[in-house]
């Protein structure tokens, strides 16, 4: 990964850090959407960048608001804001149909972005997608945590994958409720592939099945990896991810 990112300046004066591989004219592109408290430089993003470079695809990975080298505090981030980031990146930094790859929380943002920019979307690849995860977070809070959230507007929630607790805000919970996607049909007709490990202790693999059921398009597949965890970052997982991207790229090539 490029340690010195470029920056996309947004109308509100904030900046989003990104790395990009320019695509030859007419070549397909891939946009990676990271998970909660992650960033553009994770293992999956790096593997995809290397794969896209080899294949001659365009590639963009970026840090959402409050993540990595981008502007803002994580505590002020919401699904709406992160979706706006993804749409801004799609509009400003890519041309032609794009394959969106969304990991965990990024899978929720991927769905919202695909609905908002349907003509630009060539396909979706979800990795342990976590749509509507804020409802699960809220349900898992104990009475003391709920009281703290009401009183302070922030509650620390421990993650299985980080020693630091995640500062979860009331704004994120409320905005998440306004952006839920699993309660109704999802207006996506592009091809969709959803990869999920059945040993995932953070996001139940049934989330991917439910999302697949809600998507209106018919070209939708769920791939369950029996021994896979939430990260899906082992070499065999990364090979599966890259092969899945190739499959969808083949569908959008002229």
Question: Structural class, please?
Answer: alpha/beta
CATH-level-2 architecture: 3-Layer(aba) Sandwich
Distance between the termini: 30 Å
Number of strands: 10
Domain unit count: 1
Overall shape: globular
Q: Strand-and-helix sequence, N→C?
A: EEEHEHEHEHHEEHEHEH
Largest sheet entry: 8 strands, mixed
- The helical percent reads 25-40%
Share of residues in strands: 15-25%
Total helical elements: 8
Return the CATH topology. Rossmann fold
Spatial order of the strands forming the largest sheet:
1-2-4-3-5-6-9-10
CATH superfamily caption:
Alpha/Beta hydrolase fold, catalytic domain
Radius of gyration based on Cα positions:
17 Å
> What would the average pLDDT be, to the nearest integer?
95
Low-confidence stretches: none
